[in-house]
Amino acid sequence: MTSDGYEHTGRVLACYRDEWEVVLDDGRIMRASVRARHFAGLSEHEKFLVAGDMVDVTVRDDGGAVIERVHPRETSLSRLRPRMRKEAEQVIIANVEQLVAVASLGAPRLNRRMLDRVLVIAESADLRSVIVFNKIDLVHEREWLPAAAAYEQAGYDVVATSAADGTNIDELAALVRGRFSVFSGPSGAGKSSLLNAIEPGLGIRVREVGETTRKGKHTTSNVTIFRLEDGTLVADTPGFRELGFWKIHADELDYLFPEFREHIPRCRFTTCSHSAEPDCAVKDAVERGEVNAARHDSYLRLLEELRQSS
Ligand SMILES: Nc1nc2c(ncn2[C@@H]2O[C@H](COP(=O)(O)OP(=O)(O)O)[C@@H](O)[C@H]2O)c(=O)[nH]1
Ligand SMILES: [Mg+2]
Ligand SMILES: [Zn+2]
């Protein structure tokens, strides 16, 4: 207890221009202000609070809440801040355990390059990834089965869903429950629909929250965390059009493709980039069908991009 009230641990659920929505350790959801705009605990490039941050909050006797401190982040999912002259980091969300990469069949169409990009970003943040192919009610399974097999072969959990008719929503829910997850994927892929399908009550509650505390306010990043009935946290994100790499280097990209890892030590050159070198164990694995050719192709394109930007 402090002189002006009780101190709680809390988690930031959403950030607004000068207010933060926080869930306290006792389950209360409150609007809070901050004592200091910049926190000593955060380095220069991460001085802004983001959704997912753990904080210490003082609740005053008059009911107001003030964020006093931010805890060091255990994980942070970051991208290059778009449209900035100077390279800067944008932390999308802090402290998540898992990325749920939602790809859509039908409209918008499956974009494997974009999917591989977000998987690389998640790998570099040490997050586990689940891949969802949503809207399977719209297309024949020959449109997605080969891609699903490729990602399963790479070691990812893959679920093919329809938020529209409920197919495999239980399977997705089982992968989400108990792990703080962030849903990512293009706008219109069905992220919000899937979250509502996982917890039918959620849509109503989202709307209720929108009408009461979130009304007329725009979050600064549109990343919003929801709490499921069992306490699981899930973050919904808008479709990020740009996911520029932050602090990912060309020479570490191969390790961010998990299915390459077992082959890399057997390349003839320790500096092998798995592109044009002879006796490359990764390319051999592609030829044998042990590494998916489209994944290797994504790797080569991302490698080129990283080499050009450095
Ligand atoms: N046919 C079909 N439509 C879906 C499915 N999931 C979502 N949609 C529709 O796709 C549109 C975008 O969904 P939304 O959840 O807002 O996508 P978000 O932008 O990723 O959050 C809405 O019109 C949904 O009704 C699905 O599994 N099948
Ligand atoms: Mg949405
Ligand atoms: Zn190689």
Major sheet size, sense and barrel closure:
6 strands, mixed
Low-confidence stretches: 204-217
- Class of the largest domain, according to the CATH hierarchy? Alpha Beta
Counting helices, strands and paired strands, the structural category is alpha/beta
Give me the number of helical elements. Answer: 7
Q: Number of folding domains?
A: 3
Radius of gyration, whole Å: 21 Å
Morphology: globular
Widest sheet, order of strands? 10-9-8-11-13-12
What share of the residues does DSSP label as strand, in percent?
Answer: 15-25%
- Helix percent reads 10-25%
SSE map:
Layout: E1 5-15, E2 20-24, E3 29-34, E4 54-60, E5 65-70, E6 76-80, E7 89-94, E8 98-104, H1 112-124, E9 128-134, H2 145-153, E10 157-160, H3 169-176, E11 181-184, H4 191-198, H5 200-212, E12 224-227, E13 233-236, H6 281-287, H7 293-309
Parallel strand pairs: 3-5, 8-9, 8-11, 9-10, 11-13
Antiparallel strand pairs: 1-2, 1-4, 2-3, 4-5, 6-7, 12-13
Helix pairs in contact: 1-7, 4-5
The structure holds guanosine-5'-diphosphate, magnesium ion and zinc ion.
Magnesium ion binds at residues 191-192, 236.
Structure description:
The protein folds into three domains: 5-70, Nucleic acid-binding proteins (OB fold (Dihydrolipoamide Acetyltransferase, E2P)), CATH 2.40.50; 76-236, Rossmann fold (3-Layer(aba) Sandwich), CATH 3.40.50; 250-309, Probable gtpase engc, domain 3 (Ribonucleotide Reductase Protein R1, domain 1, Orthogonal Bundle). Helices cover 24% and strands 25% of the residues. It contains seven helices and 13 strands. The protein has helices at residues 112-124, 145-153, 169-176, 191-198, 200-212, 281-287, 293-309; strands at 5-15, 20-24, 29-34, 54-60, 65-70, 76-80, 89-94, 98-104, 128-134, 157-160, 181-184, 224-227, 233-236. The strands form three sheets. It has a six-stranded mixed β-sheet, with helices on both faces. A five-stranded mixed beta barrel has the order 1-2-3-5-4. It has a two-stranded antiparallel ribbon with strand order 6-7. α1 (112-124) crosses α7 (293-309) and α4 packs across α5. It is globular and about 70 Å long. The termini are far apart. The protein binds guanosine-5'-diphosphate (GDP), magnesium ion and zinc ion. Guanosine-5'-diphosphate is lined by residues 134-135, 137-138, 162-164, 185, 187-193, 239.
